[in-house]
Give the backbone structure.
Amino acid sequence: MATQYGYRLFRLELYTGNARRPTDFTRASQTSGGIRFDVPAMIREVCERHLNETFDEPLRFVERVQLDDDAAVNDPDAEVEDTTPMVRLTQVVRHHNRVDIRFRHGRKGSHDLALSAMGEDDDADLRNRASSNEFRAHLYFPEEGTYGLLVCEARGRVCPYSDLLRVVGVKMKHWVEEMGKHDPGATITKWWKLKASPLVDDERIHSSIRQGRAVGIRLTKYGIAADGMRQRPREWYLQTDRIAPENASPLRHAAARWTHVDPQRVGLTEEDVREPEETEVRHMAAYMGAEVDPEDFDEAAIIWEDPEGAITTIRPDDHQSLYIYPVGPRGRYPSDQVFRQAAEARFPRLLAAAQIRLPNLQ
């Protein structure tokens, strides 16, 4: 299936060091070499210093001390799959209160060879490498207050905003520490860290449940990592794309229950969204016409088509895909202008409720 391009929106907060309360963006500044850096200037400067570098190690604000227990795994001789994210900043541009960043992102994985249709001489070794895609991010900073805005591109369900902010934040910390050591005239407060929380378009979620429809059901079984602790993204599916007409309403009820919408706003009652007596896996299996032992599967999901024709996956208490706003038809990569304008067109109905005060967009 062709990729659906889109974006997610996040409210940005700036924290000084390990402070628990956010800092006013307009009052934060650092001075080095006689030059004053506000937050947008600092981000641009740090990104420009690290353009085209590849970050392939876990970045932390505080170095982690390894304990002896960390080495204890079920099978110490097993090869544990490396899924470390890799980030490479490729472009940064500041436009007044907005900073635009382009970056490549991917994860190392179990694949060791990319096959070429031209034959094995053109195959590519993938060991210790990550296949990647380019993403776009726009950071908007307020004229006053503690809330900014982040727009980050999504490809399907992948939106690597947290890895981008971690790279930018850790490198800002390193630069501030460097200024404190080597620039006697620098005015150093403390290092800064950006935190993002999803912005929810409440009306969009309700309209998706009210006007969309279920087009499939999926039951998933996860594999277990070599350390026996965390689930891996290896999945076995039992899926149907045939929804009987009599099951359309019950599946809408389940989607409403999982997304925690107001039942009355989607034409339902409290009784419609009441928790089932059986597990969600068994509940969904009944609509598939299959006899399923709940222990055979870990998760149930509904494949949902929203009013705009975008296909999303809704899971219990996980409706991240409804936060992803599609831009254009599947398989068509939107231009920079179309991408940014699509995001900014949604700002008016979200920013006031989120208490984000941006100057005039440029």
